Amino acid sequence: MKVQRFAAVFCLSTIVWTTAGCTVMEEEATPRVSQKNVASPEQVNTSLKKATTDSKNQQAIELEKQTERVTLGQTKTYDLSSLLSKHRLSIDPQYFYQNQIFYFDLQENKSTIYTYDTKRQHNKIVHATKHAIPMMTGTGAFLLWVETEEPTKTGVKWSIRQLNITTNQMTTLDTGESRFDTSPPRIDVTSTRASWITQGATAQKTVSTLKSYSLKTGKITPLHSFILKTGKVRDGLFTYEHRDSDDGVTLYTSHFNNGKNVRVLETLDGAYKKEISGLIDFSRSGTYFAFGTEGDAMFQPIGLDERTLNYSASSAQTTIGGIQFLSNTQVVFREGIHQLMYADLKAKTVAPLTDFEELVSPPLLQDGKLTYSITNDKKSTLHVVKLLLSN
After folding, report:
1. How many CB atoms lie within 10 A of CB 241?
2. Which of 26, 98, 129, 260 has its CA at 20 to 30 Å from residue 294's CA atom?
3. pTM for the full model?
4. How far is CA 352 from CA 55, 340, 349, in A?
């Protein structure tokens, strides 16, 4: 899960508009339990050669493709077509709390956070700002997002904001400035904390600091710093992204040694370390790491005497992202932008979760529910699946 910090506290005023014509459909079913880094083609090819071979130099096992759609639980579908506009062409859920689904809309000089109440079937504005909102997430009763100002000659100023959903109290958790082509933070969350990486850059070095925010105490604690010297010859570590979970923190880093660069996926505790380039997305469960690249999804066992599993996408150019572990061995991911897929790593199978659509949002997993939206032309539907799964 994800979090960030703020300093101004105020109560929100909200504008409420009732959405007419929102319909709710239920599908009863028995569950079947059976800005990323852009990589060059050379990097992707290198990545695939390394990632599809496990630590014992054994070729990965290709998951068996199935054509019949799977159903993972009771599904409720909401018609949100009336919320679309010339500015908002799709509705991508970012956080789900009780019966509220949060999403945001970016326009040229304005960003707006909305919540759709699935019980009352109406939409309202939660927060509007002249700043850009590059990402948003949440955990428990807290909504968290990043705001960025217009770029200046020195860099891009950013802030991490938090909203208490139950009290409407907003707080600024952290602020900074991204300089020398570094990026603003990305928040990730667990059930007890939020974390992000800040990058303090000068002409001589970049210091990447991983910070953890406790939901219980409200304190922000620096966990680890990585230093990259940026003189004539680069030397040290630079962090691109991280993922936080109850199983620990995973980092995607560049290791520079006398100017030579190796990209590595590693855990903060040092228990796992793997060279891999061209990552689109990554995640982990208690027993598997999952990697998404162009053309492949790969699942590498953690501490198990088993071979790596691989899924080949419909084309070598199709990206794999939006990876969500439903359990230790069950995972959902998005293939391209058109379809969600479900992998059962025990059964070594992959099957479609949705049909091939014009646009499918990345899946959102929260409190035992899987949420995603589907957009076809001017019709947009929100799907909430109450999961019935096992490990």
Report:
1. 19
2. 260
3. 0.83
4. 29, 6, 10
